[in-house]
Amino acid sequence: MSKRITIDPVTRIEGHLRVDFEVDGGKIGKAWSSGTMWRGIETILQGRDPREAWIFTQRICGVCTTVHSVASVRAVENALNLEIPLNAQLIRNLVIVAHALHDHIVHFYQLCALDWVDVVSALKADPARSAAVAQSLSEWPGNSVQEFRAVQERLKDYVARGQLGIFSNGYWGHPAMKLSPEVNLLAVAHYLQALDFQRFALKAVAILGSKTPNIQNLAVGGVANAINLDAASPLNMNKLFEIKEQLESVVRFVQQVYFPDVAAIGGMYAEWLGYGAGVKNYLAVPDLPTDAAATQFDLPGGTIMNGDLSTVKAIKSWKDEYFEKNVTESIARSYYDGDWQKHPYEETTDPKYNAWDPDKKYSWVKAPRFDGKPMQVGPLSQVLVGYALGDQRIVKWSNRCLEIAGKVAGAKLSPAVLHSTLGRIAARAIRAAALSEISLKHWGLLAANIGKGDTAVYVEPRFPSGTVRGYGVHEAPRGVLSHWVVIENGKIKNYQAVVPSTWNAGPRDGKDQPGPYEASLVGNPIAVPEKPLEALRTIHSFDPCLACAIHAHDAEGTEIAQVKVL
Ligand code: NFE
Ligand code: MG
Question: By alpha-carbon position, which residue is closest to atom 3 of ligand 1?
Fold first, then answer.
């Protein structure tokens, strides 16, 4: 008999997500993903000056603040056909890359690792053997016996004093936990080290953005970082080298710790390459331009349909009609007035709440579609698109990851295994490794351009009378982000954000096609229905952010919590 499980709230994510699913014979059948909050930033923007939209949209989320500011200024610049200076593109790129590196590190260690790593088991580890495993994978200086012994002592101390804190409520000892005590100890040590390195990445963001979260240095038309190598407060040699130093330490952590950890632990859980594929239509957008006009990019974009890499179709620029024409959102199953599916320029956001009903409306998240189809977005989409298009960095790091994981698993792994729960986690590490190289490249491009005497950072936007419209895209840590703006006589007439977690967490649409979270849960094993660890593995592999997905908050809340998890 099938059993109905509700996880509400899902934790170790950003925002408020509820997931319901049926379990029959130890496997998940149907699933429903529901966003349980609403806020309405799109509505707040109507009638405002387009130059200030980025300041509001940046408050959509406390996790990926930078991304909504970048997408917003790009949307207004796109509407005005405004080309910004090269320095401005590169400074934005450095903020984007440093923020993404922070975000991917935090996702793996702080948000997702505890689904795979049994913290309590680390107490039984032999630190010398942990060090031997770690040293076989990497030259990282933090892999010494002393380091692992010290971490284990700390852990013993917490347990003895009953102070496991955030570790106190996990599914420790769950039958799906498979790592040896030694690997668990290694992962706990790197969990603690990751807290420092994600901070170094954010320091680079803060030096350029003046603060983070919520950077201050953007403007429609460029950035507000005055450049003067001979003065104390603008962007000068000192600050440039401080940024480089932070980036270099993060690059080392990504390449020597995060990447090998994911590849090796992935190999130890190789059966999870067979679960969680879900929607195998993938969408990514090009990002990190290397020229002022944004015609060349270091991150590739495109689509792949039905999991077939040979269907890859590149999205070549931020003006590509293939992207602009094909995006719609459906509210057939979302708490908004109506049941339409519309292009973002034509959309409205009129909340209309009803009680959660899996057969009717059950989520505050809208359901974005591309050419009418659900699409998966995120690092996996970008990696598969990049792999299919032959992007050199992505091919190199993907092959390296599959090789390490294959060695550990004792199998030959092809890119096809990436269509999976574990594939999403691996792709994030592959993307982080590619970004780590790109970060230093773009630092070099900026330093060289300034060295040539170019200090331009801004061009003034001018708004025509009448109506113009545009869209701004950004490949955010969780995937394709697009902001769409209609401007009438210099004021915002309509503003819509179509966000990565909206693509992935969205509900069914008018044709009853499930969204990526819902589809990816189908067929997952569930060993202990009261402790649905496996469902969390798959949901966490997307790195959910519900504030982004709904741009919203509702004080009323919706449902009873049946299962609470760490
Ligand atoms: Ni709030 Fe976000 C990212 C955006 S996901 S974290 O990345 O945009 O929807
Ligand atoms: Mg929206």
Answer: 478
